[in-house]
Amino acid sequence: MVGLVSTRAPFPTIRARSTFKFGISGCNLHNYLRYELQCPSSSLNWSLKKNAISLAPRASVESVDYVAEPATKVKFPKEVTVPGCTKSLILLGTGYREKVFAIIGVKVYAAGFFVNSSIKEHLSSFKGKTEKIISEDSSIFNSIYNAPCEKSLHIKLVRNVDGKTFWDALNDVITPRIKQVTGTDELALSVFRTTFMDRNLKEGTNILLTWVEPSMLLISVSADRLPSNVDAKIESSNVNSALFDGFFGDSPVSPSLKASVVSGLKAILN
């Protein structure tokens, strides 16, 4: 596998008319306001109605087109076109990866998992299943992986990471999941490593790991935006499946991502 935006309108200011400066007592003021609010023709009531739209939070365009990963607040588009894919992919779930240093959890990156919408055609046997069943049944993720349609993992760093550290973390996910490393696997791992080793991956870097087929993983990297080019190809079924299993197998490196994807699967299947 290839080594991977609500604003609130200000409340309207209601200015007291000159009546208030003539010594209205607290009680009279209360009665005055109650009358003004209850009388449909009152200027105060009219002013509130006119500004009613400003009293509620406005949903930004981004909230319609994007989904924010809860823990990191990183926003992922609901639909995206990635390098190497001819059709757009839909967002199935989001999550984050955390590393523990001296018992302190540090979030390293947020991730969004995208799939071709045709994936539903290959998962019909799972329709109606509960999230618990989907989560515990490894066959559904095997079906997703082997389905002849693209899927992509979008990783966005939330802290600076040097390339070697990033690769080492990926390698720790991949290699232990390969029962017997072949020459093809070693070559693929070498390409994976070379792609990241000399990079200075700063906060905000975007990485796409795109499975175009089980034996082909595309890696795309961009410092500050969604990548537009393919930086490397990983041609090893063992490496690619191990990477996928690292995120969606029995011991996922990002439990939050898998849980979110499970919810997404239930939604599209029902």
UniProtKB/TrEMBL annotation:
What superkingdom does the record give? Eukaryota
* UniProt cross-references to Pfam families, sorted A to Z: Chalcone (PF02431)
The record's listing under InterPro entries reads: Chalcone_isomerase (IPR016087), Chalcone_isomerase_3-sand (IPR016088), Chalcone_isomerase_bundle_sf (IPR016089), Chalcone_isomerase_sf (IPR036298)
Family per record:
Belongs to the chalcone isomerase family.
Q: Specify the protein name.
A: Chalcone-flavonone isomerase family protein
One GO term in the molecular function aspect is: intramolecular lyase activity
Chalcone isomerase domain spans which residues? 73-267
What GO terms describe the biological role, i.e. biological process, of this protein? fatty acid metabolic process
Originating organism: Rhynchospora tenuis
Q: Which GO terms describe its cellular component?
A: chloroplast stroma
